[in-house]
Amino acid sequence: MMAEASALPRRLLRTQRQRNVVNGLLFAAPWILGLLLFYVYPIFSSLYYSFCDYSILQAPKWAGVRNYLTLFTNDEKFIKSIYNTLYYAFFALPLGLVWGVGIALLLNMKVKGVSIYRTIYFLPVLVPDVALGILWLWVFNPQLGILNALLWKWFHIVGPGWLSDPAWAKPSVIIISLWGVGQAVVIYLAGLQDVPQELYDAAEVDGANAWQRIRHVTIPMITPVILFNLIIGLIGAFQYFTTAYVITTGDGRPALSLMFYAMYLYQNAFVLYKMGYASAMAWLLFLAAVVSSYALFRSSARWVYYGGQ
Amino acid sequence: MAGETAPSQVSTVSGNVRRRRLWRRIGRLWGHLALIPLSIVYMIPFFWMLSTALKTDRQVMVWPPVWIPNPVAWDNFPRAIAFFPFWRFLANTLTIAVLAMLGILISSSLVAYSLARIRWPGRDLLFGITVATMMLPYQVTIIPLFIQFTRFKWINTYLPLIVPAWFGGAFYIFLLRQFFMTIPQELSDAARMDGASEFRTFYQIVLPLARPALATVLLFEFLARWRDFQGPLIYLQDPRKYTISLGLSYFRLEHSTEWQLLMAASLTLTIPIIILYFLTQRTFIQGIALTGLKG
Question: How many domains does chain B have?
Fold first, then answer.
């Protein structure tokens, strides 16, 4: 009896396990195929192309490391595009973090009309990127734009040339990115609402003031969400393209101050048809994304608190 | 508990509570004091866009600028839409969006089901790879894909924008997997006991329960297609095939100083999304919040 009872399920289990393998692979088949076609194959073939001269009209011609050599020793635009992209990431990410968490903290105070405020801060996220670029060109317009008009009316300041001044162009696009912080705010707010009330009560009983509660309860509890937004933001900065492309019509003007990495890659590949050269840029971008995501994850062991989950 | 406390203690406790409430109210007041001016600053670009879109060409050039257009130039909208041409680009965009949404929905839900509900070796590895691809910049793979699509003679067609969607999207797979995990396993076990095939369990039990998540996927994919600029820029050459975002960028090149028309056109692209947001606010906000949790 006992032997029979246990033999039957085991036989079923074995077939069930086999069925699971077959079903699991079948259900995942589109994506496994998609990974091979749209990720694995392109990544490795672009590695190959990056060592070639390739104009798409003629077959790729082996060129060794010349593309990489030229990029680093004889291409000021390339160096400039790295500088611009790092500049953007270096300021837009920390500012966006403080700004986004700040707004989320204000919204989390259970003030009246939270949903109205949240909608207001979220609306900019809804503006399509091309419309966003055109809108801010007009807001920042040095002669007729609203920003310089208000600066003059309220503070009697003669505003700068903003997007048309090389010194102000990058701060201008960082301002645009802060206007679009609403997406991160929604994520921070969700993280804040998951912080258990008991922790605040306990801190209050221990005599912690509002700032201490934020510093020692709230912030540690939302570090996982902060890490998530930082990674999303960093990858977003690496591929920053559309807004700057629309503002500068693709040439990174004025004086290349808005020539970002992804734009220069696009220009090489799809304007100049230097596919090999652009592939070398793509591979460097790939390495940068891998290394910096890895570094962020590694550093997260020191500052991200997962106790809450 | 309350009955056991001495009267004097009760009065100090309630005093504490009252003081704390007062502080909280003051805090909220400060909150409003910070939020209201900030909200106005955030709305200025929208007011500016709307105000400009309703001005005549001469009013646009007035310094200092006025907020209220007089007369109101409603005809900027029909003019912008005609120049664009908006309706053709809208039809193109919707064609791409609907076919891509369909592909994303079918493929991503199948894959997410495999990752969340079926035990098979290699499943966790595949999930890890899926999360990793979410961190891959778009430009890394674009060149070999363009070369491949050129060989297929797919340039200047919608195929490069639609076909990849039918193989799944990392972000959507991730999102659906997280949602499928929350559906009780007993439901699947019961169906299996009744002899239902895996596909029937997927189709008749899990999918109907996952409707909110599926709605999020459709909504996000629609928005992504509505605002997509880089894909159409690379793959579409014939102006008659342009999408609205790509069309707007060319509109800007041709009418670079007619701000009232540019703002009318930009608003025409933005307003449908804002309406969609108000209609689907819950799906929207929950979907975004869901992506951040357990990221």
Answer: 2
The answer to whether the Cβ–Cβ distance between A282 and B133 falls below 8 Å is no
Do B214 and B158 belong to one domain?
yes
- Asked whether residue B108 falls in the same domain as residue B183, the answer is yes
B243 plus B167 within the same structural domain: yes
> 């992506």: which residue's tokens?
B291
If 0-12 CB within 10 Å is exposed, 13-18 middle and 19+ buried, where does residue A162 land? buried
The total number of residues shown for chain A amounts to 309
Contacts with A139 from chain B: Cβ below 8 Å: 44-45, 48
Q: 0.95 exceeded by the pTM?
A: no
In a structure prediction context, what are the per-residue pLDDT tens digits for chain A, which is 309 residues long? 344 444 455 555 567 788 889 999 999 999 999 999 999 999 999 999 999 999 888 889 999 999 999 999 999 999 999 999 999 999 999 999 999 999 999 998 878 888 899 899 999 999 999 999 999 999 999 999 999 999 999 999 999 999 999 999 999 999 999 999 998 998 998 899 888 888 888 998 888 888 888 899 999 999 989 998 999 899 999 999 999 999 999 999 899 999 999 999 999 999 999 999 999 999 999 999 999 989 998 998 888 887 654
* Closest CA–CA distance from residue A213 to any residue of chain B (Å): 14
Residue B45 to residue A135, Cβ atoms within 8 A: yes
Is B287 among the domain residues?
Answer: no
Percent of chain A that is helix, strand, coil (3-state, to 5): 75, 0, 25
Q: Do B15 and B134 reside in the same domain of the chain?
A: no
Query: Which of A134, A193, A253 is the best mutation test for B, with the most CBs of B within 10 A?
Result: A134
The complex scores an ipTM of 0.89
CA dihedral B51, B56, B62, B65 (to 10 degrees): -10
Kindly state whether residues B92 and B213 are assigned to the same domain.
Answer: yes
Domain membership of residue B266 (yes or no) is no
Which structural domain, as residue segments, surrounds residue B45? 2-60
